[in-house]
Write a structure and sequence with these properties.
The complex is a heterotrimer of chains A (501), B (83) and C (147).
Chain A lengths: L2 E7 L13 E5 L2 E5 L5 E5 H8 L10 H6 L9 H11 L9 E5 L6 E3 L18 H11 L6 E7 L7 H18 L2 E8 L6 H9 L3 E5 L4 H7 E3 L6 H18 L10 E3 L4 H4 L2 H10 L4 E2 L11 H7 L3 H20 L5 E2 H11 L19 E4 L4 E3 L2 H8 L8 E2 L5 H5 L2 H8 L22 H8 L10 H18 L5 H9 L12
Parallel strand pairs in A: 5-7, 5-14, 7-8, 8-9, 9-11, 12-13
Antiparallel strand pairs in A: 2-3, 3-4, 6-10, 14-15, 15-16
Chain B lengths: L2 H4 E7 L5 H10 L4 E7 L3 E8 L7 H21 L5
Antiparallel strand pairs in B: 1-3, 2-3
Chain C lengths: L10 E7 L3 E7 L5 H10 L4 E9 L2 E8 L5 H40 L8 H14 L11 E3 L1
Antiparallel strand pairs in C: 1-2, 2-4, 3-4
Helix pairs in contact in C: 1-2, 2-3
Classes of the chains: A alpha/beta (501), B alpha+beta (83), C alpha+beta (147).
Bound molecules: iron/sulfur cluster.
Amino acid sequence: MIQSRSLQLRPHRVAADQLGVFRWGRLGDRVVLTNDAGEWQLLSAADFATFLAGELGPEHPAFEALRSRGFLRQDLDAEDLARKLRRKRRYLGAGPHLIVLITTLRCNQSCAYCHASRTDMHRTDTDMSLETAKLAVDHAMRSPSPYLCFEYQGGEPTVNMEVIKFCVEYSREKNRHEKKTLDHSVVTNMTYMTEENARWLVDNGVLVCTSLDGPPEVHDHNRAWSGKGAAAFETVTRWMDWFNQAYIDKGLDPALWHVDALMTTTRRSMENGKAIVDLYVQRGIRNVHLRPLNPFGFATKTWRAIGYSMEEWLAFYEEMLDYIIELNLQGVQIMEGTAATFLKKLLTPDDPNFVDIRSPVGSGTGQICYGFDGSIFPSDEGRMVHGMGDPIFRLGHLRDTSFEEATRHPTVRAIATASLLDALPQCESCWNAPFCGVRPLHNYMMSGDLFGQRPLTPKCKQHMSMVSMLLERLANDTDGRVEAIFRRWTMDRPRSPDANA
Amino acid sequence: MSDSLRTHAVDLHGSFYDAAGVAAAVEAYAELARITVQPTGAGLRVELVVLDDEVDDLMDHFLNHALHASVSLQRRQADGVAG
Amino acid sequence: MSSESSAAELQIFDFVSDGRSVRLRLDEGLYPLDAIRGAAYLFLDRCFVRLERLEDRLVDVTLKSKGPTDDEALGALAGEFCNALLDQAVRVQVAASSGKIREYIMARAFFSAPAQSSIDQLLAELDAEELAADDLEIQVPWEQGGA
Ligand code: SF4
């Protein structure tokens, strides 16, 4: 049946000539204003209407903040905003700093959610050769970035320990002339660790990052391992203890030197959220990084068993965030990793230059990835797409493609174009754009299109909801205790450079 | 299903849907429908013959895709970004 | 486009629903094309959106539910769209008014010499432009009433 109806909306006036440069959006009953310099301000909907009408006067408690942050035309300090913006985008043109090296595809675990194309342990033909490793270090060190972080991944990277050792030593030797700041970090499942290798990693200041999905019932369930009698959980935690004790024995500050852990959230993790956080606290890990599973590449049956919707994940995340804040209020030092990334954007004048959440995204401009065979990719995701049989993101080979050719490759330019928020519908006027980032390679894996459809991408929903949650908690923080905790999460202390020498 | 039931036609105005956006949607739906596009004075006429009866609302899906692609392209052109 | 424009009048949106979709007729003179397009884009995940131009300045927006629905839900969808449209219209107006200041800030941040020699000169130019501008009123809702 056809029905005709009408609705009435009460309009407000806009005194555009009194307003500064800003983006805005509605968060429940509040309105958030932001600008490119990373400033933000929350107002009630009624105050926002008054602000838009140019009637919010100096007597209003938010007036000074609105004026000094450039949201009002009055006293707008364009030079100050330009300075802040330049500082926030310091990463532009700085060149890749994250260097991902795939030392081998061999792995002794077969995890339910693994996307890294892996091979069985006998496939030594998927090991990186020393010759390729040398070319990779030479290539990477041409990056103009004054800081480089070499991240060794696999497969299980320690299966090819020789290449890790070579890259660490060779890059340091080369760096006598280059004088960059270098970090080395190995992402290991620990199940192939030996005392000799562990000792070498500690003595050579190589950071160790592992995967800890939660208590044994979660970790062992997620990570099928036909190990030597011991379960994966027991092995990982034993080695974490070993490393942490070795750092202490060396006189290193445990707040800076400890094994970092990443967790992957499956459906089973969601049922055990608090137990996972408790385990991290109990093991002295200060950063729990809650990440949703990437939904691509799964057989429908597997996804049904371990997967979930973005809405379900966000509900889980919010519950965990509040639990982590609660622990902090009781004096426990633990932070949530992605929240910390966004808080650095919201509460400090800098950008953490996290390659996945910036504009443009870091693929090829903030990071570069070398496959075991010397293929060059803009990021590890590009390498995975290649592993699935689609060569679209291969930028060339170390033998015949210079660093400059790789980082200026048309594919890198296309990725940058597809992730410049100012050029994307919805992002271009979104209040969250100063803090957000889109991932064209992720879009490509989901939909075969670099651009994706903003309202349809789960990442958009994820980023917008996470920043909203943080802003809401700051807005409701009457005594400043939550802000104090959040500010602590934004503080990074550099590790002593001597330890890397 | 008879052919007339499987055939849908719409006129798309050039101020909302541009040729490149519609072409992107045609490419995306090529396996599900036989689609022809003719220029009209003000825009494009799209005729779509459904090949896969399993998918409901195929024309609506197609139009959402075309609008998304058109808005995206217009946005990038406005920003002077190629690609 | 002035802070001195008179108190806001209620804006009436007529729409027709048929159990599966709802159609709104909009006057492009009141709502800029960019705002209509921007609002339509925001609804692509929730429903099927179709934009049609009837004649000069008149635009029909059809929002069709992706699944089973009822008239109440369709009415709510129309309401949300109208609110989003008014929000988008404010964005378009603010962007138009502050676009040159934003360009100046970008130029100062990333290039050494912006087109304008100083922000004071730019603001003076903008003031002059705005005085001469028409007084298109772009409106944000705060009350929604059924009829
Ligand atoms: S991806 Fe989503 S949240 Fe991020 S800037 Fe774009 S529209 Fe906003």
